[in-house]
Write a structure and sequence with these properties.
By secondary structure, this protein is an alpha/beta fold. The protein contains ten helices and eight strands.
């Protein structure tokens, strides 16, 4: 089987794991802390994926200063009470294992702070399958998805043409297109096929396992 990519970059929330429960609780707590009405279920779903600073402004109508305060409240609650309120998507562990076994560089490229991403992957037992993280290292410094993808490519000395970005929201696809990597939409996540295609997805997958033939990697043999 011909391998099509040397590196696969994964968004985390809504792509590697369904982290909605923890994100919803933390966003609701932040809104309450700042005296805003409770977010609706539809608003909370849109918190999964995009940078929090953007979401608090666009979804709840906060000013930049309020949004920054909300992010602080969110992070504090999330770290103390909600960080492990998540579920790994079925087949994701096996998909990561197959990519790793085939020598494909596996990177978490997420707007989730690196310290959280590392804690969660360790908690889930995924650390041995992850080669690198390209996530914000400082909450005070904004890094959009294009910047994170470019950092991942530099750190791994990977050509953009030989890399793919897998994500479930428009931010992932737009960042991938701008960085020159193949944009693969995780239609099983929170964005949906329409959003992903409209923002530049070249390919769609309906499950983690569906990624392997696109990369040109065979599933790992069962023990």
């Amino acid at each position: 089987m011909q391998r099509n990519f040397d590196a696969v970059l994964f968004d985390f929330d809504g792509t590697v794991a369904d982290t909605g429960a923890g994100i919803f609780a933390s966003a609701a707590h932040a809104a309450e802390t700042l005296g805003f009405p409770p977010p609706t279920a539809a608003q909370l779903r849109k918190f999964v994926g995009p940078p929090l600073l953007d979401s608090f402004q666009s979804l709840l109508g906060m000013t930049p200063a309020q949004a920054q305060e909300a992010v602080t409240a969110y992070r504090s609650y999330y770290e103390a009470h909600a960080i492990f309120r998540l579920t790994l998507y079925p087949g994701m562990r096996e998909t990561l294992a197959a990519l790793h076994a085939a020598g494909v560089r596996v990177v978490i490229a997420s707007s989730k702070p690196e310290r959280f991403a590392r804690r969660i992957t360790e908690h889930l037992g995924l650390t041995p399958l992850i080669d690198d993280f390209a996530c914000p290292r400082d909450d005070r410094v904004h890094e959009d998805k294009e910047m994170l993808i470019n950092r991942a490519l530099r750190q791994g000395s990977v050509e953009a043409a030989r890399a793919a970005m897998v994500g479930d929201r428009s931010y992932d696809m737009i960042g991938a297109v701008r960085a020159g990597v193949t944009a693969i939409g995780a239609a099983y996540g929170y964005g949906g096929a329409e959003e992903l295609l409209a923002s530049g997805a070249a390919l769609l997958i309906d499950s983690p396992a569906a990624l392997l033939p696109l990369v040109g990697v065979a599933p790992c043999a069962a023990d």
